[in-house]
Each structure stands twice: as C-alpha cells, then as structure tokens.
Amino acid sequence: MDGNEDLGSGPSEGAVDPSGVSGLKICVNTQTPLIWFTHEIGPLDDGTKVTDLSQLKEGDDYNYSSGGVTRMVLPLLKRMLSDGTVSEAHWVSLNPSAPETIKADGITHHFVSLEKGRLANYGKVKEIMWKAAHGTTTDAITAEEIFMSDDFPDFSYYDRLTAEAINRLDKETDFDLFYLHDFQQLQIGHMLNTLKPKMYRWHIPFDYSTFPEKWRETFITYFNSYDMMIVSSSKYLESLKEFGYSGIIKKLYPYVDPSDYSVPKPEETSALCERLGITNGDEVILVVARMDPMKGQDHAISAFASIFGKYPSLKLVLVGNGSFSSSKRGVGLSKGEKWRADLETQVQKLGLEGRVIFAGHLSQQELDSMYERCLFTMLPSVKEGFGLVVVESWLHRKACLITDRAGITEIIKDGENGMLFNPDDAAGMAEKLARMVEDRGLRKLMAEKGSESARLCTIDEGLKAETKIIKELVGG
To answer: 318 has which bridge partners?
Structure first.
C-alpha cells in the first residue's frame, strides 16, 4: 500500500475502534495560538501566578484566535481527551505577549516568544513564503533567494526555539506523537531530535508548479522529515506526490464542531444589527474572512457595486480583522490594517458608504447572529486552502457563492449545494451575485443540499479519520 489514501470523500461507515491508540501523549504545534492575550498577564491580585485560563476573563484578558487551524485542532484534542484516545495533550505556539504556559480546555499550552526585531524579520520571510506558496508573489527574485536573505536566520531562529521547546517537553512527557500544522512550521520537523512519529498538516493550497525552482530541494528535505503529510483535497495530494514527497500522504477534509454554533436570540441579533447600522428592511450578503488581499474582499465589493443600484435594500457586510500574524499582539504584520484601508478607499470611490459595512472582529455569538441574518454568504478568495466558512454557512442553513479557487470545490456541485464563480471574471461574478439575490428557491435548495454536505466536514467525521490515521502511524 502506498499510503496515499482518501479519508475525506464521504461519510465513514461505523466508528473507528480507538483501542489500539488509547492513552496517547500528543504534542501539537501551530504558529497561531488558540488564545491571544489583550495585555501582558502578570500575577493575580493575591500575587499568585496565572496557570489556568479560568482565572482570566474572555474579552477583557484574552480572546480565542480566529481561523480554521485553531478552530479545527481544539475540538479534535478535546474529543480525543474525552474518549481516552489521548491522555495528555500539549500545544506549542507562537505568542509573544503570553505567559510561558497556561492550562485551557484540558490542554497545556506552551508559548514561544520572539524579541520585536526578530519577530519583524520572521514576519517578512513568512509573508514572502506564503505568497510564493500561493503563486501570487510579485517579487520573483526575493522569492527565489529568500533562504539567503538577511531576514531568514530570524525565521529559522523561531523554528529552532520552537523545536527546542518541543524537545524539552518530550524529555519531560515522553510523547507518542507529534502533530505539526501549516507551512511556517515546516522545518521544525527537521529539527526535532526524535524518531517518534511525526505528522504534518498542510492547510494552504499546494501546487508544486508555483514553487520557485530554488525552493524545491529544500522543501522536499523538510517534507521528508515527516512520516505522514495530510492535505485537504485530491488535487493537493497528487501535487505533493509529483513534488517528490516519499512518505505517506492522506487527504482529509478540515472540520468543525457543529456544537460551536448556535441559533441566537432575536434580541441579540437585533442589538448587533443596530450597532452595525443594519435596519429591519435591509437584505444582507455576508463575507467572513480575515483582512487579507488573498481573501478577495475587493472582488466582492466590485461585484456588489455592479448590482447594488437594482437592490436598494441590499448591504454587503464584511466580518473579520487581520489574522494573528497581522495583530499587534501577534506577529505584528501591517497587512490587515493596510488592506482594510484599501477596501475603505475602494468603497468611497464607488459611492458605497453605508452600503458596505466593515463589522471587524465578532464573537462567535455575534457571528452566529450575522449568519442567521444574511440572505446568503460569499467566499471571494483569490486562493483558498479549503474554505470552512462554506461549512459554517451550511450549518446555519445558508447558501454560499464560492470562489472556484478553493479546496472545498471538490465537494461542490455547482448550482446544487453551492454556486461557483471565477474571481477574475467580474461580469460573471456580478451576474451570479444578482441571481443569488433574486432566486429565493435556489438559495433554499443550495442551503438544504449544503447542510447535507456539511456532514463531511464535522468533528465526528474528522475524529474517525484522524484516529484511523494515528492508529496507522503509531502502529496501534
């Protein structure tokens, strides 16, 4: 068996018996932490050290990070701890302003910190690599020669700090498995002093043809330091094989926990709409994405501008701030703020003030209200690793207009459980947007079919697949 297995093409039959992998000690590594802190966390009033998140207040002291990686990893670890598959879970992540460790949700979180100067250089390299991996960099020379740049040592320094933290934890805990996530953590696997199983999940698009030629040998070396690679679409799996990875490859759709989403009370939705300037007669198109050019909010605004004159009650609501990388308490990149400023300028030039609403960051309860309030949602990304926002829309029984550049298109039947568009085709995008506004029956059909498709991307399916993968890898 070559190990290139599809674990995400349909519902699993029956439960996976976790008996060969019970009581595991697992170490997860992500760049983005589950929680970020709004201020420096010092001793409590009685002088004791903060060791548990329950000692702090959400909103005042901390917030949960947005984004698909943390939203997926948390329920997986919680469920595996609950069913006994995992007996001890540690999560290592970057978090410059956090305590060294803190306990939350039964998981011990360990935070790596970088000095401001090193953090800035790390962010520069990460951004270049991220754009090149997406095939969108405009600086080919920089992308080709990034490994020789003056900033790259600080990128590697972060990876080295993280690897050393994991190695120290391994000596104390004796982990059974290491599970690393996303491209900026890639070389950490190469730095771990262990022969124990290492899994790596690549969350962004993977097209080997977009990688700069000079990167390939280095990346293959990094990839091959892992026993198993997990990607989110068949296209990425085939591309990774063609790239030259020699280990086991699994395709597994990202997933969410449906219990994280709720039907809000009418008064909660009304209060939020009043705050955002949405009246009872308004019809809402909803875009949920961090502030980033890759997310294509500019395409959504342009398409909206083409049709808004026909629909006087229509409003476009953009939910999201920058990512952890863009936040001042995170990596500190400025692209989130800059992108929002660019979008606000675009709105002004198009005469859409009051018709396009920048909602910023919303709590989960507030986001549930916006999902319930909207006519439908829109995913306008230029490129998208998967697109869990579509699944969230389906869980709220809302139809979604979806970029054809997202990994989730693998499970989309155009016009049935979603409608696809090419973000480069402005006229076609506007036409499909208008059709979604006008055709209530189509929206209802796609919402119903979508709610069925959402089952492929829930924690129940993810847990079965992940348990099967882990059982195979650790030899249970």
So the answer is: 287, 358
Q: Which fold has domain 258-457?
A: Rossmann fold (3.40.50)
Residues 84-96: tens digit of each pLDDT: 999 999 999 999 8
Domain boundaries, the chain: 5-254+458-474, 258-457
Spell out the SS3 assignment of the chain.
CCCCEECCCCCCCCCCCHHHHCCEEEEEECCCCCEEECCCCCCCCCCCCCCEHHHCCECCCEEECCCHHHHHHHHHHHHHHHHCCEEEEEEEEECCCCCCEEEECCEEEEEECCCHHHHHHHHHHHHHHHHHHHCCCCCHHHHHCHHHCCCHHHHHHHHHHHHHHHHHHHHHHCCCEEEEECHHHCCHHHHCCCCCCEEEECCCCCCHHHCCHHHHHHHHHHHCCCCEEEECCHHHHHHHHHHCCCCEEEECCCCECHHHCCCCCHHHHHHHHHHHCCCCCCEEEEEECCCCHHHCHHHHHHHHHHHHHHCCCEEEEEECCCCCCCCCCCCCCCHHHHHHHHHHHHHHHCCCECCEEEEECCCHHHHHHHHHHCCEEEECCCCECCCHHHHHHHHCCCCEEEECCEHHHHHCCECCCEEEECCCCHHHHHHHHHHHHHCHHHHHHHHHHHHHHHHHHEHHHHHHHHHHHHHHHHCC
**Domain 5-254+458-474 carries which CATH code?**
3.40.50.2000
- Band (pLDDT 50/70/90 cuts) for residue 476 is low
Q: How far is CA 83 from the centre of its chain?
A: 25
Model confidence at 324: pLDDT above 70: no
Give the pLDDT score at 147. 85
Task: For Cα atoms 101, 107, 110, give the angle at the middle one, nearest 5 degrees.
Answer: 25
Q: Which residues pair with 421 in a beta bridge?
A: 403
